[in-house]
Amino acid sequence: MRTRLNELPRWRAYIVLGLTLAAFIGLLMLALGRAPVVPAEAATAAAPEGDLVSYQRIIERLRGGADYYTAAHEVLVADGYGTRSVFNWRTPAWPLLLAALPPGGGQGVLAALALVGLLLVYRMLREEGGVLVAVLSMLAAGISLGGIVAPASVVFSEVAAGTLILISVAAYGNGWRLAGLLVGLLALFLRELAAPYVVVAIVLALRQRRWSEVRLWGLGLAAYATYFGWHWWMVSQQLGPMDRAYGDGWLQFGGVGFILATAGFNGLWSLGPVWLPALLLPLGVLGLWAWPKGTLALATVVVFVVLFAAVGKPFNFYWGALYTPLLMLGLGWAVAAVWETLRQR
Fold it and tell me: Quick check: pTM over 0.85?
């Protein structure tokens, strides 16, 4: 097994390892020197009870027969959200699905999706990196997806979208491009924040001149634009004198601190010590870079990380669920690459 790290000259490989270590030390100092972001803080920053409880109440109203936009408007206004921005309203697909399922059904759906994703990951990486890399990466991603054992986690559409992004990347890696495209579009329909992944996939398709795939992406984006336009119009019909806008926008420039907070929203990995995200983030990126065919996963993680350096309020740390399962795919490759580099050199 060869990785990008192993193929570098000795001095360059050690520079890469040194930069990874320096990134870990820098992030570690930041993690140990800052107050942790906890759900209670998120609640007071956004709404009296936070996004989680607000959308749980919306789903309960849907189960009682309420219309989505009426239910969402009542709850969001009551909880102090800036409802004049359409981006403070979730698109309805995921809440409606959860409301249609019996209690616990959402967990079952996500568990099934996670299992499919992990099996695809193993199949993809076994051929490229061998059994050890495949098992390590599958376990790391499985721990990231393991947050679904908490019933409340299924309320976050970011968790569902992040799971679908992982499946899409694994489908592409197994050579099933159409499946990867369709699952990527599904992630977008569940949460518009999946758009960075879609953009990366389209750019790579353009770069590799896969024109039929580009056309399908175009059709999918046209369908999504119609869907989101309808969503925007439905939101506008609910607005009245009780609605307000936030005084600040989504551009917060939280920098490395916010990036680290999003990296910490990482399934069961989040139960680890406060310094763990500071280790997993650079190690995961190193592994995705070392993975010879990991361009789609690496580019997606990098785009999300760069985006979150500028976009997102402090209580939006749960957006990390969009990219952390992908980030964990790099752990198996990182272990293999570092071991081979130190052993052979």
Answer: yes
